[in-house]
Amino acid sequence: MKRFEVLERARHAAILARAIPQPIIYVLGKGGFDPGRHVPWNRAGECDCSGFLAWTIREPREHPALAWIESTNVFRDATGPQVMFMTLPAGERAEPGDVLVTPDKGDRQGHVAIITAVAPDGAPSRMIDCSPSNDRVGAAIAERQIPPAFGSAATVVRLRGIH
Fold this sequence. Notes:
Blueprint: H1 3-19, E1 25-26, E2 46-47, H2 49-56, H3 71-78, E3 85-87, E4 99-102, E5 111-118, E6 124-130, E7 141-145, H4 148-153, E8 155-159
Parallel strand pairs: 1-2
Antiparallel strand pairs: 3-8, 4-5, 4-8, 5-6, 6-7
């Protein structure tokens, strides 16, 4: 899979989420089960960040390599065995199509997002994600500036084999 394909699918979902009359809402544990479906959300219009990621990278949410594609498993894989995801090699900068991830911490859910733009200094600056904070704009899947609190806590990871 190529980075532009990840970005194309992510942007496609964000555009559709705003264009259709059915509201797309964030519901934990929903979406991303059928990567061949034309949208990441289920028939009720429900999706979460990990379901959005799974659909965007064309992988089923229930995955043999990770058991379940979700933020903590993505983080553990990237910083451990690197079956599906990897941390960036030394000296490499984030690129659009890479993933920002924070694992679960205590009683706080983790989060994943697709990087869509990088600042001249190499720091990720924009992302597409499925988030309850996007629900305020009418669709849980949207492109936006990376919130400072998320950006400073997140790790940049890359899908293995992407180019």
